[in-house]
Amino acid sequence: MLPQFLSFIKQHQLFGKSDMLILAVSGGADSVALTELCAMAGFHFEIAHCNFQLRGLESKRDEDFVSNLATHYGVPFHCVRFD
Predict the structure, then answer these.
(1) What is the CATH number of the domain that holds 48?
(2) Which domain holds residue 31?
(3) How far apart are CA 15 and CA 41, in angstroms?
(4) What is the pLDDT of residues 33-56, one digit of tens each?
(5) Residue 63: C-alpha distances to residues 9, 15, 21, 58 (Å)
(6) Between 2-11 and 29-41, two packed helices, what is the crossing angle to 10 degrees?
(7) What is the pTM of this model?
């Protein structure tokens, strides 16, 4: 999957290796996969998460999961909570 990911980025000139990316990560499979691909590709990135607090403890668990993901990759974590 990594070769296709890199090919798509290059073909559409989305960004380069020297760019800093902000990944919006919900904690779902798609955004976690994007995070893993960016890490595998060696891109520089930070992780952002929006917690709308609509699902109580489940929303908090998502936030904690994404925070731990950022820690795992050694990247900054930014979270905004909405009331």
Answers:
(1) 3.40.50.620
(2) 20-81
(3) 12
(4) 999 999 999 999 999 999 999 999
(5) 28, 27, 19, 9
(6) 80
(7) 0.93
